[in-house]
Design brief:
This protein is mostly helical. Helix content is 79%, strand content 0%. The chain has 5 helices and no strands. α3 runs antiparallel to α5 (75-136). The chain starts with a helix and ends in a 15-residue tail after the last helix.
């Protein structure tokens, strides 16, 4: 006889694993600090590349002005200004990314708690079925199911 509750729980677990669970289960391999740090390093690299491209595009756009006034420009002040702009924009960018990835990790934690609850319910159903099946078997056919992990 088919246990409808077990089928319903297994369908929920399979749906989670096939959909949003792929990302959630892969994110679960990391501690919160490690996950956020790894993402912030990636954000820093991409921001630095984007900033360099933007400065390069601006320099190409203003190339005629820069070449004609190269002797009159205060290059150290210009470099300090670009450095200050880079650091301030980088700080804002990384702060936004920190908040986003922290919230993603927290939401993922809640999703995994619900998934874990489903697995515990399934485990309980399997244990009660194995106990009832074990009491119904005769002494010649009573074996433990070694394939079940007990999660």
């Amino acid at each position: 006889m088919v246990n409808e509750e077990k089928v319903r729980l297994m369908a929920k677990a399979a749906s989670f694993e096939a959909g949003e669970g792929k990302q959630a289960l892969s994110m679960n391999r990391f501690f919160r600090g490690d996950y956020i740090s790894l993402r912030l390093i990636g954000a820093w690299v991409s921001f630095t590349a984007a900033f360099c491209l933007c400065v390069g595009l601006w320099a190409f756009y203003k190339m005629e002005y820069l070449m004609s006034n190269i002797n009159r420009l205060d290059l150290p002040a210009m470099g300090r200004g670009l450095g200050l702009l880079y650091l301030s924009l980088l700080g804002i960018f990384l702060l936004i990314h920190y908040v986003v990835y922290y919230n993603r990790y927290q939401q993922n934690k809640k999703r995994l708690a619900a998934y874990n609850h489903i697995l515990k319910q399934l485990s309980h159903i399997y244990q009660t079925e194995s106990r009832s099946a074990g009491s119904e078997l005769t002494s010649e056919g009573a074996e433990e199911n070694e394939d079940f992990t007990g999660i």
